[in-house]
Backbone:
């Protein structure tokens, strides 16, 4: 957000004292470099590189204002309060699903935090009939899709995971973001019982080494991080 704000503030002086073309070339490249230095995920660089040119291109069309409102509402429907939570919609891939099938303890109460469209729960319901499955998803769109696709035996909650007692589960799985991990870890430490299992897809807990790391060997160099509470 800071990079985007600075880019927009630089747009006027650069375009006024030099040229609009120079501004649209210099600012995205500067934002790209800043994102490369400040961010740890590759997609941020390309988002900052493309944001301003796309903004200028869209401004050339006679697009009615209500379309932008509809786009905003659609983003809220799909991604929820991502600007506050800083947790976008991530979907677990098949490599993660296959690993989870083998590592979740037998007959465990399993919770998927930020469960998206219920991909993990749908897979485990098919391959691990011994598990008691629950999922939490705050965004309305993914939750509704999960409500349609998941079997009735899965507890499917449209609430903030912070309001869920993690102490009721032997295994908790999360695929959120680096911004959410410190608070989620504190909640897990306070609520989860000794001997239970906490699993994070891709995102680590700062300064807390995982007890086990499973490489998913996928295109994004994904990993499962496991902590025994």
Residues:
């Amino acid at each position: 957000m800071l990079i985007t704000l600075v880019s927009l503030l630089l747009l006027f002086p650069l375009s006024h004292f030099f040229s609009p073309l120079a501004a649209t070339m210099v600012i995205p490249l500067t934002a790209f470099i800043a994102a490369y230095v400040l961010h740890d995920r590759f997609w941020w660089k390309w988002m900052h590189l493309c944001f301003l040119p796309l903004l200028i291109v869209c401004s050339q069309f006679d697009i009615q204002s209500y379309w932008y409102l509809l786009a905003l509402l659609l983003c809220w429907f799909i991604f929820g309060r991502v600007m506050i939570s800083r947790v976008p919609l991530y979907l677990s891939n098949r490599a993660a699903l296959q690993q989870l099938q083998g590592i979740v303890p037998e007959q465990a109460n399993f919770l998927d935090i930020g469960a998206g469209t219920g991909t993990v729960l749908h897979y485990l319901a098919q391959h691990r009939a011994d598990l008691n499955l629950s999922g939490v998803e705050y965004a309305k769109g993914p939750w509704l899709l999960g409500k349609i696709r998941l079997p009735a035996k899965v507890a499917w909650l449209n609430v903030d995971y912070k309001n869920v007692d993690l102490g009721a589960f032997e295994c908790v799985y999360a695929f959120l973001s680096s911004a959410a991990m410190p608070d989620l870890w504190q909640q897990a430490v306070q609520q989860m019982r000794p001997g239970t299992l906490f699993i994070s897809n891709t995102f680590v807990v700062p300064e807390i080494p995982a007890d086990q790391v499973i490489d998913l060997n996928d295109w994004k160099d994904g990993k499962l991080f496991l902590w025994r509470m």
Remarks:
- Residues 2-61 form one domain.
- The beta strands are 109-113, 132-136, 155-157, 171-174, 197-201, 212-215, 223-228.
